[in-house]
Structure formats: structure tokens, C-alpha cells
Amino acid sequence: MESVLRRGGAPSCPAPSSHILRRSFSAESAPERKVAVLGAAGGIGQPLALLMKLNPLVSRLALYDIAGTPGVAADVSHINTRAEVKGYMAEEQLGQALEGSDVVIIPAGVPRKPGMTRDDLFNINAGIVKSLCTAIAKYCPNALVNMISNPVNSTVPIAAEVFKKAGTYDEKKLFGVTTLDVVRAKTFYAGKANVPVAEVDVPVVGGHAGITILPLFSQATPATNALSEDGIKALTKRTQDGGTEVVEAKAGKGSATLSMAYAGAIFADACLKGLNEIPDIVECSFVQSSITELPFFASKVRLGKNGVEEVLGLGTLSDYEKEGLENLKPELKASIEKGIKFAKEN
Ligand SMILES: NC(=O)C1=CN([C@@H]2O[C@H](COP(=O)(O)OP(=O)(O)OC[C@H]3O[C@@H](n4cnc5c(N)ncnc54)[C@H](O)[C@@H]3O)[C@@H](O)[C@H]2O)C=CC1
Ligand SMILES: O=C([O-])CC(=O)C(=O)O
Prior knowledge:
By secondary structure, the protein is α/β, with parallel strands linked by helices. The protein has 12 helices and 11 strands. The radius of gyration is 19 Å and the shape is globular. Belongs to the LDH/MDH superfamily. MDH type 1 family.
């Protein structure tokens, strides 16, 4: 996606007419790829199922949830695109849903209500993620896992521990989806810098909660002098609070679903392109990392046929960003350790 935006094109995903896709494969000649969505009947799951059905790189789409998937699958399956859609409901069908998957996307779990932090979701979502990852280790240990369920700063370390215990862990194949932070940073920056949003790129690093979300506006392109120091601080805060902005606007009816489905579809599309060996696919993601002293960190990642091909460094940071980086480390470290501890003890 980023490579598309750098060339000034419109987002390539999920529009089937993407010039990138046209250049590389027709829908018919693209390799067979199975994508599973776990939590497919939820607020994110349903529009994400729709967007994945529109993606010509997907040949099979498995929609799994504890309830409601027959209806979602029947509905989405009538769309006249390549992917063959099947719905799977309840735990006894989880294995079938996962078997043969190349990419597993996990938006299963409870969302926030006003006044809650993402960490307040830990008690419920940690167990859900643990049991789903146990099944992934059994039924599709080689799949790329796109973790959406919050708190991402903890659920990704939980997944890593589950896979380690099962002996299937491959750090190249586990991703925390932080694309929505990038989507927001791009939108908010374009509005303030008065540049065409389709041309904007902004890396967002760190984690996916509050101050752990660190947009690097000093590296934003196209560059602008339209932003004062205070303007950048305000943009940073809005990006960090983007999720809360939606939670409050929805007033008890959940958190971001439509923009998250869009972001999740962009990230899954990037994973599929990487698997299909399309060059120069770079997205920000929360992955195992050695670019800071923390074991997991979000930064730009180059995607390839095995998942992560390269974790890219942070580049040059402004003083404000350097300060933000130091400030986020204690919280991010604690969230990572909380996830690891949970997985080890449960
Ligand atoms: N990474 C990110 O940027 C974002 C993450 N999220 C997170 O995504 C998660 C889902 O959010 P929504 O879709 O709005 O929630 P939702 O409540 O609308 O949907 C969640 C779905 O998960 C299903 N589910 C629960 N337990 C399950 C299990 N064991 N196996 C399979 N499915 C199960 C539910 O039946 C439901 O259909 C939340 O944790 C939320 O915080 C939300 C927005 C952005
Ligand atoms: O804020 C939330 O709870 C959901 C989320 O992660 C986001 O929208 O970034």
C-alpha cells in the first residue's frame, strides 16, 4: 500500500482494479490463497469479510465466529468475485476454518466502551486470543497471523508465547495490526497540511494504545511547512486518541469498525502481496523487533514470501519524537510483559 501511495496512486486495496494487481496478476492467475477471519460476525469482522471478498488475491475465504457466521457467509458469498466463501460456527468447526489458511486475521474479542482503556479488555480478550492461537498452531502453523484484537500490545506477545509453547513460533509470521494508526495519521496530516490525502505517507511506530502510538510527522510526505510545533503536537495527540474519539462518538456502541475493517483489509492485502512475492511491500506493524530494547515494537516492515522480510529502522527522529519514544517505552514494556506472563501462567 505504501509503495502505491508513494507513487501517488489511489489505495490499491481492496479495489479489484488496482494497477499493481493488474501489472502482476489477473485474478485468475494469482496464486490460490486462503484467508480466515476469526470473529467474522462482529463489527469489524463483517465489513472485513466484505473487503476480503472483494480482494482478487483471495481464492478461499473462511469466516469463523462463535455465532452468526452462516448468515454473514451466505450474504457475502453472493458477491460475484473470485473468493469461495464458507462460514464456520462454534469451536468444533474452527479446525476446518483454519486448515490450509495462508493468512489468519483475528478481530475476535470485546471492544471498548467510553471510559475504558484498551488494557481493560485484557481479561476477556487474552483468553480468546490464547485459545484461537492454540488452534492456529495446530491447524495452520505456517499462516501469517494478523492480530487486531486489543490490547494489541499484549495480545501479540500472548500469541508469540502460545506458538512458542506449541513449537510453531516463527517471528516472521506474527503481526499486530497497527494500520489504523497509519490511516488516521495520514488523514489528519492531509487535512492540516492541505495536501492530497492519497499522496500522504506517515510512519507510525511504537505500539497500539495511547502514548505508545508514535506518529513520525517529521518523516511525513509530502513535506510541509504549514505545521507549527504546536500543530504537530495536536496531530500527534489526535492520532494517539483516534480510537477513543470513535469510542466516545459511538457512545457505548463499540469502537472503530469500518475504518478498522479498511485498515485490516489493507494490511492483509499487503501480506498477500508479500506472499506472492510482489516487491517493495512495506507497512507499519507491531512485530518481534530488535530496533529498540523492547522485544516487540511497531515500525515499517518489508513483507515477503515468508512474512517479515526486514524490520526497518526508525530513521531520523525530531526531538519531540525522541522524547515520545522514551516516554512510551515503560508502558509498552509493561503491556508486553503482562501478555507474556498471562500466556506462561495459563
Ligand atoms: N488493532 C486495532 O487497530 C483495532 C482493534 N480493535 C479491536 O478488535 C476487537 C473486535 O472489535 P469489534 O469487531 O468492534 O467487536 P464486536 O464485539 O463487534 O465483534 C467481536 C466478535 O468476536 C466474536 N468472538 C468472541 N469470542 C470469540 C471466539 N472465541 N472466537 C471467535 N470469535 C469470537 C464475537 O462473537 C463477535 O462477533 C476488539 O478487541 C477491539 O478492541 C478495534 C478497532 C481497532
Ligand atoms: O480504540 C479502540 O478501543 C479500538 C482501537 O484500537 C482503535 O480504534 O484504534
